[in-house]
Amino acid sequence: LIEGGAQVAGQFMQAGLLDRVEWFRGNQILGGDALPALSDIALKSLGDARQYTRHAVRPLGSDVWERYVAV
Question: What is the DSSP letter of 40?
């Protein structure tokens, strides 16, 4: 279990150490000046991104919780 901000999450993702992601989304869309969920993970191309499959989704009030598992 890793709980932290964008910097911590980005470092673990960049290192390939995330086998599961628990994702909470709110009901607001924020612009570019909002806080990021992940820091820069230094992808050279989309093909370098680790693939995840959504395994669960559940509404939580006006928010949504999702679980993704690495492929």
Answer: -
